[in-house]
Specification:
By secondary structure, this protein is an alpha/beta fold. It folds into 3 domains: 215 residues, 3-Layer(aba) Sandwich (Rossmann fold); 60 residues, Adenine nucleotide alpha hydrolases-like domains (SH3 type barrels), CATH 2.30.30; 77 residues, Elongation Factor Tu (Ef-tu), domain 3, CATH 2.40.30. It has 7 helices and 17 strands. The strands form 3 sheets. It has a 6-stranded antiparallel barrel with strand order 12-15-14-13-16-17. α1 packs parallel to α2, α1 crosses α6 and α3 packs antiparallel against α4. The protein is globular and about 65 Å long. The N and C termini lie far apart (45 Å).
């Protein structure tokens, strides 16, 4: 067993964080469970925002395993760091990723800072990812002031590849990873459910959330409709410039989107797909979904706001990337342009790479960092 630590467990009210707390308790750590109260749907957006039920479930799990439970109010910080980022991105025609930003700015940002201020050594979550300690090769040269050997930490994919969530941690720093604990990263999901049932946890058979980070089962279109004004424009066929219809706003669409465009297709095999946005006249550009569709597939892209978990990649080299969550890792060539930007060349063209999305970099199963598509 690892050394006893005082750990603050982020309790979402789901089964993953419940079992994370259970395992840490069994390992003998000093635990407190905390629900991050980030969003309560004050604006009555259409959808299910089950924060009250999640608090009740998280509290029930903490009572069952015998640890203290708290509610930490981070609603102001969540609006400032996640909701503002989300809405600003869509308003500018980008496709932001609120889950990745929530991890960097909230869970391992202000929540981690709150934990440190209250005497906790680490923050634990229910992510399917694995944190591995690596002792510095030249230990004598890397001792800190107390004489203890410095370690660095690597982040690996979760053992259950169907549930792996390493992609969502692509913008974490080494300091954030040092204070993170991922107790369930080695477990397959069925085994995790079995442990929850055997322990009698209230969340054992609770359905996994598929909504926006901490907001709930809300459709993105409904969320955007509540905050971003409509900005209508034409839907234009990219091949010949023919106007096919009208849209309510470019922020409702993303590159590669097929469903919900609002124009009829000839058939399922000849459906329209979004291939671009033209800011000058707010035109939504579409084409038939085909490998030759202009702008749909890209072999070369640029990324900015590079963030690294360990040492930055400072020279051109081959690596792998995950272009979006649940996509497989694909080979690419990484060519740095500056400390914060790089040119990426994929071995095979990639579909629907939208500005504002995150590209995660890997060396095998090890997550290296990430960048934002220009």
């Amino acid at each position: 067993m690892s050394a006893r630590e005082k750990i603050l467990v982020a309790m979402s009210g789901g089964v993953d964080s419940s079992v994370a707390a259970l395992l840490l308790k069994e390992q003998g750590h000093d635990l407190v469970g905390a629900y991050m109260k980030n969003w309560i749907n004050e604006d009555n957006i259409v959808g299910d925002c089950p924060w009250q039920r999640d608090i009740e479930d998280a509290r029930a799990v903490c009572d069952k395993i015998g640890i203290e439970f708290r509610v930490v109010n981070l609603m102001r910080e969540y609006r400032e760091h996640v909701v503002a980022y989300l809405l600003d991105g869509y308003a500018r025609g980008l496709t932001p990723n609120p889950d990745i930003m929530c991890n960097r700015e909230i869970k391992f940002g202000v929540f981690r800072a709150w934990a440190k201020e209250h005497g906790f050594a680490a923050v634990a979550t229910g992510h399917y990812a694995q944190r591995v300690e690596r002792v510095a090769p030249n230990a004598l040269a890397r001792e800190n002031a107390s004489g203890a050997t410095r370690s660095t930490f690597a982040l690996l994919e979760g053992a259950d590849k169907n549930k792996d969530q390493s992609y969502f941690l692509a913008l974490l720093s080494q300091a954030q990873l040092a204070d993170a604990r991922f107790p369930i990263g080695h477990l397959p999901k069925p085994e995790l459910r079995r442990l929850a049932r055997e322990a009698g946890l209230a969340t054992a058979d609770k359905k996994d959330s598929q909504g926006i980070c901490f907001i709930g089962e809300v459709k993105m279109a409904d969320f955007l409709r509540a905050y971003v004004p409509d900005a209508p424009g034409p839907i234009v066929r990219a091949a010949d410039g023919r106007e096919l219809g009208r849209h309510r706003g470019l922020h409702f669409y993303t590159l590669g989107q097929r469903k919900g465009i609002g124009i009829p297709s000839n058939s399922d095999h000849n459906a329209y797909v979004v291939v671009g946005k033209r800011a000058a006249d707010r035109a939504l550009l579409v084409a038939f979904d085909h490998p030759d569709a202009p702008g749909l597939f890209q072999r070369e892209v640029r990324v900015h706001s590079l963030s690294w978990i360990g040492e930055p990649i400072a020279t051109a080299r081959p690596r792998e990337g995950r272009v979006r969550y649940r996509d497989p890792r694909v080979p690419l060539d990484f060519t740095p342009e500056s400390e914060s930007t790089a040119r990426i060349t994929f071995r095979e063209p990639q579909r629907g790479l939208a500005s504002g999305q995150i590209l995660a970099f890997y060396d095998g199963e090890r997550l290296l960092g990430g960048g934002v598509y220009v």
